[in-house]
Design brief:
Strand content of chain B: 35-45%
Largest sheet of chain B: 6 strands, antiparallel
Strand content of chain A: 5-15%
Strand order of the largest sheet of chain A: 2-3-4-1-5-6-8
CATH architecture of chain B: Roll
Radius of gyration of chain A: 30 Å
Distance between the termini of chain A: 57 Å
Structural class of chain B: alpha+beta
Radius of gyration of chain B: 11 Å
CATH architecture of one domain in chain A: 3-Layer(aba) Sandwich
Shape of chain B: globular
Helix content of chain B: 10-25%
Shape of chain A: globular
Number of strands of chain A: 12
Oligomer: heterodimer
Number of helices of chain B: 2
Number of domains of chain B: 1
CATH topology of one domain in chain A: Rossmann fold
Helix content of chain A: 55-70%
Order of helices and strands of chain B: EEHEEEHE
Largest interface: A-B, 43 and 39 residues
Largest sheet of chain A: 7 strands, mixed
CATH class of chain B: Mainly Beta
CATH superfamily of chain B: Ferrous iron transport protein A (FeoA)
Number of helices of chain A: 34
CATH class of one domain in chain A: Alpha Beta
Structural class of chain A: alpha/beta
Number of strands of chain B: 6
CATH superfamily of one domain in chain A: P-loop containing nucleotide triphosphate hydrolases
C-alpha cells in the first residue's frame, strides 16, 4: 500500500487535515521506543487506498527536540512514497522555512497551502501558480477545516509519485553553496542515500550527522575554514544557513503573497483585542483563576451556581423531593452537568447490575457465581465507568481551552512562577489537568521540550488530587467533621488539596536540583491566533479518550476486580467465606500481615482487631482510588457496625469504620494524605510507565512510596503532638534549601571547570 | 548596543546578531529570529517576563533570558 507522510509546523492544521483525509478510521498507535503518538489512517477515495501517517509538528529538521528527530528519522528510514508538507498560509515565511529543508530530501513532495479561507477573509491573495513555479513542487490550496480541495491534494500527490524528484537546495546560491556541493559529492561516493540532505547537515555541523560521517565532516570544516571564515558569520555555518534560508524565502517566495493592506503593528486583529483583556497586566491572572474555578464547578460541584445555598429548600421548590430524578439532579442544590452525567451513568450501571443479578437468580444460578459476576466484576467496572462522564466533561473544557489557543497564553502568564520550581510554563497545563485525571495529564506532558523536566512533571502529577480521590477526601473529611466540634469538612478538603500542591512544588524543586537536575528549559513558544474550535475535532478528541478509558475498564480493572473478589470471599484453604466471614478471608490475613507497615502513619497496629481494613483499603487504592471507599462500603457491613442514620453516603461508612477500629483523627488525616500522594491507580501507573520509560519508572514508583509514607507520618506525628510541626518544618526547609544551595555551588564549580578546560 | 530584552512595549527593531549557543540559539533561528528580521515588542507577561513579540507576521513568546542573546541594530 502507498504511504504518505504529513509534515508541517505545529498548529498548521496537520491533524485537522489528517482527520479530513482519513475520516473516522483514525487510530492511535505508539512509536517503537519513543513516547510520541504516531497516527496512521487510511485514505480510501483513491483507486488504491493510501496510508496516511501523521508526524509530530515541527519547525525544523534540527537534531534538538525528540519530535524533530522522529520526523526526520521517519522520512529518512521509512521512506514514505510522498511527503505532504502542510503550510499555514497566514504564517508563510516560517512555514516555508521547514519546506526548504524538506526539499533537500529526494522524496516526492506536494505542498498543501492551508487556511486559504482565512486569507480570503482578510482580502489577501496568493499567486499559487507563481509559487509553484518558484518552489518547483506541486502546490494545492486547501482548507483542512472545511475539507475544501483535500481530494485534489491527494490526486496531485498520487500524480507526483509517478516521477522521481531530484533533491534541491535553496542554499546552493548562497556563500555556502560550494561547501555543500563538495560534501554532497563526497557522500555520493560513499553511496549514502539522500546525499544533499546529509551534506547540508554536515556543513551545518549537525550533531547526529557529524557522528555518522566524521571524515566528511572534517573535510567540510576544513573547506569552510579555508574559504569562508571571513564572511559576516565567521564560520558559524548554523547561523549562516538559517539566515540564507530566510533570505531566500523573503526574496523569492514571500512576494507571491499580496496583502490587501499594509500591515501595521498598531492595528489590532481580533486575536490581539482578545489578548488585550485575557493577558492584561492586572486582569490576566484573575481572569484565568475565574475560568479554572468555573470549569471545576461545572464538572464537580453538587451545588451548581450555588442555587442550593441561595434557595435553601431548592429540592422542594423544584418539586422533585422523593422522586428518582432527585438523586441524579439534586443534592441540596442543583448538580453541575458533570455530576448529573456521573449520577445518570451510575444509576444506569447499578440498574443493569441489579437486572442481571435478578435475572441470574431467577435462572437458579449459584449465588457465589452471581456474587462474582455482580459484586466482583460488574460492580468494579461500573464504579470506574461512572467517572467517565466527569473525565470527559473536564477533558472537553480543557480541549476547548487548548484548541482556542488560550492555554498557550496561560503558560505565557505563569512561566515566571513555574520557573522558580525548575519547570517552564508549559508544565502548568498537565498539572491543572491532574485535578481531573492523571492519565490525560501525563500524556499532555509531551508538549514539554526537556525530557528531565517532563519526567519530573509526570511524577508530581498524581499529587494534584484527581476526581477519583475526591470521594475519599469528601467521605473522610465529612466523618472527621462529625467527630470534632467546630471543624469544617470543607476546610479539611481544601487543606488536603493545598497539601498536595505544596508537596508537588517542593518535590519538583528537590528533583530539579538532584536526580532530574537542570534549569527550566528554554521557553520560546508560538502564540497561536485565537480561533473557535471545530466541533467535529472536539468530538473526535473525546471519542479517542472515551475509547481508551473503556478499553482499560474492561481489561486491567476487570481483572483486578475479579482478583479482589476472590481474595475477599475465600479463605486460605479455598473455602468460600462470603461477605459475612470476610475477616477470615485471604484478603484479611494479608491485611493483618501488612498492617504494621502503616503503624508510623497511625492506621497500623495501634488499631484494634478490625484495623486491617485500613491497610487493605490503602492497598486496594492502588488498583483504582474509587476502590478505597467502595471497600469501606463492603467492609462496613461485615464489621457488624450499626449503621448510623442521618449521614451522607460514604461519610456513614467511614463513621462505622471509625467506631469499629478505634482510629483517631490524626490517623484519618494521615490516611487521606497517604492515599492522595502514594502510587496512583493502575491506569495512571501504566501511563506513567509508558511516558517515563521502564528504567526510570522503578525510581518513580519508589519516589511515590517514599513521599507518601514520609508526608503521612509527618501529618500523623504533627496530629498527635502539634509542637513537632516546628521540628518537621525546620527539617523540611533546611533540607530543601540545603539541596538547592549545594546544587548551585556544584553548578558554579562545573562552570568554572568547563571554562578552565575551554581556555586550555 | 541594544538587546531584544531591553526593548520597550511598542518599540521595534532589526536583528543584528544572535548570540548564545546550542538548542536556544538554533531555536531562535528556526523561529525566524535571524539577522535582518524586524521585531516588534507587543507586550510583557503580567509578571514582567516572558515577553511577546511580533515577527514575520506571527506572535512569539520568549523569556528575557533568551531574548538577551539577540542584539538589535
Amino acid at each position: 500500500m502507498l504511504k504518505f507522510a504529513l509534515v508541517g509546523n505545529p498548529n498548521s492544521g496537520k491533524t485537522t487535515l489528517f482527520n479530513a483525509l482519513t475520516g473516522s478510521t483514525a487510530h492511535v498507535g505508539n512509536w517503537p521506543g519513543v513516547t510520541v503518538d504516531k497516527r496512521i489512517g487510511t485514505y480510501k477515495k483513491s483507486d488504491d487506498p493510501v496510508d496516511i501517517v501523521d508526524l509530530p509538528g515541527i519547525y525544523s529538521l534540527s537534531p534538538y527536540t525528540p519530535e524533530e528527530v522522529i520526523a526526520r528519522n521517519f522520512i529518512l528510514n521509512e521512506r514514505p512514497d510522498c511527503v505532504i508538507n502542510i503550510v499555514d498560509v497566514t504564517n508563510l515565511e516560517r512555514n516555508l522555512y521547514l519546506t526548504t529543508q524538506l526539499m533537500e530530501l529526494d522524496v516526492p513532495m506536494v505542498v498543501a497551502l492551508n487556511m486559504t479561507d482565512v486569507l480570503d477573509k482578510r482580502g489577501d491573495r496568493i499567486d499559487v501558480k507563481a509559487l509553484e513555479k518558484r518552489i518547483g513542487l506541486p502546490v494545492v490550496e486547501i482548507s483542512a477545516l472545511k475539507g475544501n480541495n483535500v481530494d485534489t491534494l491527494m490526486s496531485r500527490a498520487i500524480e507526483a509519485i509517478k516521477t522521481p524528484r531530484a533533491a534541491v537546495s535553496v542554499l546552493k546560491e548562497s556563500a555556502l553553496g560550494s561547501a555543500i556541493s563538495n560534501a554532497e559529492i563526497a557522500l555520493k561516493l560513499k553511496e549514502v542515500e539522500a546525499p544533499l540532505f546529509h551534506a547540508v547537515k554536515l556543513v551545518e555541523k549537525d550533531t547526529i550527522e557529524v557522528e555518522t560521517h566524521p571524515a566528511e565532516a572534517r573535510a567540510a570544516e576544513a573547506f569552510i575554514k579555508e574559504n569562508l571564515i571571513n564572511d559576516q558569520f565567521n564560520g558559524d555555518t548554523e547561523a549562516a544557513i538559517a539566515d540564507a534560508r530566510y533570505k531566500y524565502i523573503t526574496q523569492h517566495f514571500s512576494s507571491t503573497l499580496t496583502r490587501a493592506r499594509k500591515q501595521s503593528y498598531d492595528e489590532l486583529s481580533k486575536s490581539d483585542k482578545a489578548d488585550k483583556v485575557l493577558t492584561h497586566k492586572w486582569a490576566g491572572i484573575p481572569i484565568f483563576l475565574v475560568i479554572m474555578f468555573a470549569i471545576f464547578h461545572l464538572t464537580f460541584s453538587e451545588n451548581f451556581l450555588y442555587l442550593g445555598s441561595i434557595i435553601p429548600s431548592f429540592g422542594e421548590w423544584c418539586g422533585v423531593e422523593g422522586s428518582a430524578a432527585k438523586g441524579v439532579f439534586f443534592a441540596g442544590g442543583l448538580n453541575s452537568p458533570g455530576v448529573i452525567l456521573f449520577n445518570a451513568l451510575d444509576l444506569l450501571t447499578s440498574s443493569i447490575g441489579g437486572w442481571i443479578g435478578a435475572g441470574l437468580e431467577g435462572l437458579g444460578v449459584n449465588p457465589v457465581l452471581i456474587s462474582l459476576l455482580i459484586d466482583g466484576a460488574w460492580g468494579g467496572i461500573a464504579s470506574v465507568l461512572s467517572f467517565l462522564p466527569q473525565i470527559l466533561v473536564l477533558f472537553l473544557f480543557f480541549s476547548i481551552l487548548e484548541d482556542t489557543g488560550y492555554m498557550a497564553r496561560v503558560a505565557f502568564m505563569l512561566d515566571r512562577i513555574f520557573r522558580r520550581f525548575g519547570v517552564s510554563g508549559r508544565a502548568f497545563m498537565p498539572m491543572i489537568m491532574g485535578f481531573g485525571c492523571s492519565v490525560p495529564a501525563m500524556i499532555n506532558t509531551r508538549t514539554m521540550a526537556d525530557e528531565k523536566e517532563r519526567q519530573a512533571t509526570v511524577r508530581v502529577i498524581p499529587f494534584f488530587s484527581c476526581g477519583a480521590k475526591m470521594p475519599i477526601l469528601l467521605a473522610i473529611a465529612g466523618a472527621i467533621a462529625t467527630m470534632v466540634d467546630g471543624l469544617n469538612a470543607d476546610l479539611i478538603t481544601y487543606g488536603m488539596y493545598l497539601l498536595g500542591i505544596v508537596v508537588a512544588l517542593v518535590s519538583l524543586l528537590v528533583m530539579r536540583n538532584t536526580t532530574q537536575r537542570g534549569e527550566a528549559s528554554p521557553f520560546i513558544m508560538e502564540l497561536p491566533t485565537y480561533h473557535i474550535p471545530g466541533f467535529k475535532n472536539l468530538m473526535l478528541h473525546l471519542w479517542d479518550k472515551a475509547k481508551h478509558f473503556i478499553q482499560k475498564a474492561f481489561t486491567i480493572i476487570l481483572v483486578s476486580c475479579i482478583a479482589i473478589w476472590f481474595l475477599s470471599n475465600f479463605g486460605w484453604s479455598w473455602n468460600y467465606v462470603g461477605e459475612e466471614g470476610m475477616d477470615q478471608s485471604i484478603l484479611a490475613s494479608i491485611g493483618r500481615l501488612i498492617q504494621p507497615i502503616f503503624t508510623p502513619l497511625g492506621f497500623g497496629s495501634q488499631l484494634n482487631e478490625n484495623g486491617w481494613v485500613f491497610a487493605v483499603a490503602a492497598v486496594l487504592g492502588l488498583i483504582a482510588k474509587e476502590d478505597v471507599i467502595a471497600a469501606f462500603g463492603a467492609l462496613a457491613a461485615c464489621l457488624g457496625g450499626t449503621l448510623l442514620g442521618g449521614m451522607e453516603e460514604g461519610v456513614e461508612e467511614v463513621a462505622v469504620m471509625v467506631a469499629a477500629t478505634g482510629i483517631d483523627v490524626p490517623a484519618l488525616i494521615s490516611f487521606i494524605a497517604f492515599n492522595m500522594l502514594t502510587v496512583p491507580c493502575f491506569a495512571a501507573v501504566a501511563t506513567a510507565r509508558g511516558e517515563i520509560g521502564k528504567e526510570k519508572f522503578k525510581w518513580t514508583l519508589l519516589f511515590w512510596i517514599v513521599v507518601s509514607y514520609l508526608v503521612s507520618s509527618i501529618v500523623y506525628t504533627v496530629g498527635i503532638a502539634v509542637w513537632s510541626i516546628a521540628i518537621w518544618a525546620a527539617v523540611a526547609v533546611l533540607t530543601t534549601v540545603g539541596i538547592v544551595a549545594y546544587n548551585k555551588a556544584m553548578d558554579k564549580k562545573e562552570n568554572e571547570k568547563r571554562l578552565l578546560n575551554e581556555r586550555k | 548596543m541594544k538587546l531584544l530584552s531591553q526593548l520597550d512595549i511598542g518599540e521595534k527593531g532589526i536583528v543584528k546578531v544572535v548570540n548564545g549557543e546550542g538548542v536556544v540559539r538554533r531555536r531562535l533561528f528556526d523561529m525566524g529570529i535571524t539577522p535582518g528580521a524586524e521585531i516588534y515588542l507587543r507586550k510583557k507577561a503580567p509578571l514582567g517576563d516572558p515577553i511577546e513579540i511580533t515577527l514575520r507576521g506571527y506572535e512569539l513568546t520568549l523569556r528575557k533570558a533568551e531574548a538577551s542573546h539577540v542584539e538589535m541594530v
